[in-house]
Design brief:
Layout lengths: L1 H20 L9 E3 H8 L10 H8 L6 H4 L5 E3 L42
Antiparallel strand pairs: 1-2
């Protein structure tokens, strides 16, 4: 029994160490907090962009600047292929209720990302 507990604890510690040292590179389509992204890539993000609609609201004084709206350690999403552009038209046929996942097929990523780890 003691040997089993020792082996179990040793494997658990080994797994935790492997998980801790496993994050070495940025992967496309993944989410990182700003400090991890900067540490892994060596790049510093000093300028943040926003949608043209939000930029107009900032210019009218309805919203504070984007730097004031962000949390201390914002989420960084790495694009899968390239950074997109605002605007345009999405065209996709939806076959009705038999195409049960139809509305979700137009999005590679979900419009809203929620994680219990966010504080």
């Amino acid at each position: 029994m003691k040997r089993f507990v020792f082996v179990f604890v040793a494997l658990l510690v080994l797994q935790i160490l492997v998980m801790g040292f496993g994050l070495k590179e940025i992967k496309p389509g993944e989410y990182y907090n700003l400090s991890d992204y900067e540490r892994l890539t060596g790049k510093r993000i000093t300028k943040f962009n926003e949608a043209p609609m939000l930029k107009e609201m900032v210019e009218k004084g309805l919203l504070p600047p984007v730097e004031e709206r962000l949390p201390k350690n914002p989420l960084v999403v790495t694009p899968v292929k390239e950074i997109g552009q605002y605007g345009g038209t999405w065209r996709r046929a939806w076959y009705g209720f038999s195409d049960k996942w139809g509305p979700n097929k137009i999005c590679f990523e979900y419009p809203i990302f929620r994680s219990n780890a966010w504080k």
